[in-house]
Amino acid sequence: MGLVEHQVAAFLLFLLTGMGAGQRVVTIQKGPLYRVLGSHVTLWCKVSGYQGPAEQTFQWSIYLPSASEREVQIISTADPSFPYAIYTQRVRAQEIYVERVQGDAVLLHITELQDRDAGEYECHTPNTDGRYFGSYSAKTNLTVIADTLSVSMGPQDLIHTEGDAMELTCKVSRSTAQHTHLSVGWYCLRGEHRAEILTLSKDFVVMPGPAYAQRFLAGNVRLDKVGSTSYKLSIAAVEPSDQGQLYCEAAEWIEDPDGTWKDISRKQSERTSLVVTPQDQDLCVGIAATKSNPSEGDTLRLNCTLEAQRSDSRHFQVAWLLNSTEVARIDPRGLLVWKKEYEKRASLGQLHAFKQSNTVYILTIHEVGLEDSGAYHCSVLEVKAPGNFQSIQTNLSSALRINVKPIGLGLHATLISRTATVSYMQSFELICRMSASRPVEELLLSVGWLFQPKPPTDGYQELVHVLPDGTVSWGRAQPRFQGKAQLMKAGAFSRLHIHSAVAGHAGTYQCKVGVWRTLQGQPTVSFTSNAVGINVVPPESKLRVATRENSMEVAGGADASIECRMELPLNNSQLAVSWYYLPPPPEDANPLLIVRASHSGLLEYGAEFSSPTQKSRFLSQRVSRHVFQLRILSASSGDQGQYCCAAEEWCWLEGGWHGLGERWSGRTRLLLKLPESELHLEKANHSILARYGQEVTLGCLLKSTLPPAVRLSATWFHRKEDGHERPLLTLNHDGAIESLQKGLVGRLQLRRPTAGDLSLTLASVQEDDAGTYHCQVQEWQQQGNKDKWELQTWALSGYTQLTTTPPETTVLSRICSSPSLLNFILCLPLVLILLLALAGFCWCFISRKRKKGTIRGDQLMELQGAGGIKQT
Ligand SMILES: *[C@@H]1O[C@H](CO)[C@@H](O)[C@H](O)[C@H]1NC(C)=O
Ligand SMILES: *[C@@H]1O[C@H](CO)[C@@H](O)[C@H](O)[C@H]1NC(C)=O
Ligand SMILES: *[C@@H]1O[C@H](CO)[C@@H](O)[C@H](O)[C@H]1NC(C)=O
Ligand SMILES: *[C@@H]1O[C@H](CO)[C@@H](O)[C@H](O)[C@H]1NC(C)=O
Ligand SMILES: *[C@@H]1O[C@H](CO)[C@@H](O)[C@H](O)[C@H]1NC(C)=O
Ligand SMILES: CC(=O)N[C@H]1CO[C@H](CO)[C@@H](O)[C@@H]1O
């Protein structure tokens, strides 16, 4: 037992300090000693300064308080018969024995102290020396006291989860009269193994067991004295290793007279079994979101919730993961850390995360974007302490799939107009129909109207813009629409109403719809509609012109009036009237402009009618409000053909005159009723071949003689090979000659050798004078009034076909103009010389070989020579 061991240790210490030799000295443990009834008690005794054998004999006796003079022998190391009867039994049963520590030192053991063991103990060593010198025995008193120590701890079964706090209280008391100290300790039994947890020593020092030193230092394990007899063990967080049989043990200590402390009693409490369930399985992590299908721009909240026992006293680090990549974490101290990719948005206030409690962690994403879609997890790490990130356990929530719906997708705008053509001063409306994958009423929409004038200038200009909060702002195109544009928005429609349209409103229109996340900033998505073209046309002319076809016959030289009748009354608009002439076939039927009277009254003659005679003969008149007239004075056969007019209404619009389009009348055929009378003109056709530069006479000859009271007028015509006929020259009945083709002035001459010869001479014929010429001759007679001549009859001459050729050339010039001929002439002398040389050679050869030449050979030679000469 512990008591004994302590005794022995103290004794050995004493022995080592040693003593000098000399005289015999017997020393016994110093008394008085107080020992508890029933305890195992030892008393030490030793001898020194002796002679003789090293192994000395020790004899123990007691003097009982009741008979303090009488020695009662207990035990001897040498003599088994030494004990008195009263001790024989206990000695034999080894309840009392002597333990030899050395040859000269022993311990007396009394295993179970009895009341009758109290008394004065004597240790005696018989003399082994040559003489008696010194002491042979020593005495000490032993008092037996009652064991009053009590240790208790209410029996209980403790079941704790890892990390729980736990307390155990031990009551320790004693009522010993002597001054004693107490020590208290806590132990844990696991099978055979006893682990010391904490002890409070008799000197009031708390010491942890080796396995608990760290937790003791961390304050996790502590022992406090609460009240006079209560000792409390506290464990802040139990661990699975704490599991076992827990008890407390107290010892009562007394200070012996030699100054050593002796535990005189030692007791254990009842045992309490502690079960620690590991907390590995108790951390549940959940994740939840406000909506799993938020739309772009919504606010999304992700809650991480922890379920764990005593969660308040535990320490967690929580992280949000998106597609297994961390977004942010809140560490056990509550510190928030964003991953780099999210720092920017967090600094803009778009992201928020905080620890609401130890078990609720909230991540808020304002203005959620498509990039926030994916699988979210909460990851939780439990650590030992806020400052000690040593992991206890981790757990991961299930995945929460977040699908951010794009709001831009499906955004669409269609621009509609009921009409593409708007009359001047009418109103029109453009409707912008907006649609999206969500009801548009739920969206913050802006609508802009764009306009591009016709003809396009520099692209589209903004006309007006309405922000989601209803703010209207006008754009660059606004001045065109000043006071004329009205905007209405109803649900998914925006209408732009333009009234009193003018030409400046013609062009293309578009609407542009934007979706906004918030009332400020910029649209997230926008869509521009199709373009709608609007054409603004001037008011339609109400003018109607009679389209009936007419035919009229007038006597030659009489005046003709061709009418153009407007069918509808006209107001303040103006009219422009143009008269046209369509020559009779076979001439091309392209209308020739005679004269145009513009809306302002300006007269303009067509190219064919711009000579003074023509101008004076063709007059445009307005004879009444509704009737216009073309007067042709002194109609002649050349005026035959068709006539028509084109009338155009002009009105004053936007500061200018605008023609509203021409209306054509029906045609009026003009015929001259002229008998081809006695006037006999030479009708034979002629052909003339003229070289350039020559002069030709184009015949126009009256076959009969002319009566004196008759005058003639004539007009010559030239029809080119292309069929185009033009008048060349006119002889009026008063003898005046008018050249109708400026280009021919000076080359045409009407010589009129006799009154009936109206032949025309054309000087210096040119290539394009070719064609057919004829004349038309009218006969005039004076009727009553002296100044009034009337056309009587007319006739056409025969046709003269003029062919023009280049002028006659000289031989030299012909040669020079032909390169092959020139070459031939240059080469011929050479050829002749060669031929003569060849002939000479032949002649010499023949005359040498044959003395007599043949006549045939000579003839042949002559013929060849003649042929060559002939060829030139
Ligand atoms: C992890 O959490 C889930 C549910 O959140 C739970 O069922 C599981 O037991 C936990 N695992 C551990 C080791 O705590
Ligand atoms: C998230 O936590 C907050 C605060 O505890 C709570 O008001 C909200 O209802 C929770 N949301 C969800 C989806 O659990
Ligand atoms: C997460 O994963 C989903 C599906 O695989 C993917 O559509 C989404 O874009 C991912 N999100 C991120 C942020 O990587
Ligand atoms: C023309 O006159 C008619 C009848 O007087 C009237 O009804 C109409 O409005 C007028 N038109 C214009 C363009 O002034
Ligand atoms: C003369 O020529 C015209 C047309 O060139 C022809 O119509 C007419 O018959 C001809 N007259 C005679 C007599 O050959
Ligand atoms: C050695 C010693 O101190 N003996 C004492 C034991 O007790 C009695 C009674 O009190 C004393 O008389 C002895 O002197």
Helix content: 10-25%
Number of helices: 8
The CATH C-level name of the largest domain is Mainly Beta
How many separate structural domains?
Answer: 7
- The strand count comes to 61
Q: Which outline best applies? A: rod-shaped
Give me the Rg, rounded: 75 Å
Largest sheet, strands/sense/barrel: 7 strands, mixed
Mean pLDDT: 86
CATH fold name of the largest domain: Immunoglobulin-like
Distance between the termini: 173 Å
Assign the CATH architecture of the largest domain: Sandwich
Low-confidence stretches: 12-20, 852-872
Name the CATH homologous superfamily of the largest domain: Immunoglobulins
What structural class results from the helix and strand content?
mainly beta
Oligomer: single chain
Q: Hey, roughly how much beta strand do the residues contain?
A: over 45%
| Small molecules (ligands, ions, cofactors) in the structure | 2-acetamido-2-deoxy-beta-D-glucopyranose
Signal peptide: 1-22
Transmembrane segments: 821-846
Domain Ig-like: 38-143, 147-265, 278-397, 406-528, 539-648, 675-792
Organism: Gallus gallus
Task: Report what the structure shows.
With 872 residues, this protein is mainly beta. It has seven domains: 2-145, Immunoglobulin-like (Sandwich), CATH 2.60.40.10; 152-277, Immunoglobulins (Immunoglobulin-like, Sandwich), CATH 2.60.40.10; 280-402, Immunoglobulins (Immunoglobulin-like); 412-537, Immunoglobulin-like (Sandwich); 550-673, Immunoglobulin-like, CATH 2.60.40.10; 686-805, Immunoglobulin-like; 824-871. Helix content is 11%, strand content 45%. It has eight helices and 61 strands. The longest helix has 31 residues, at 819-849. Residues 12-20 and 852-872 have low confidence and may be disordered.
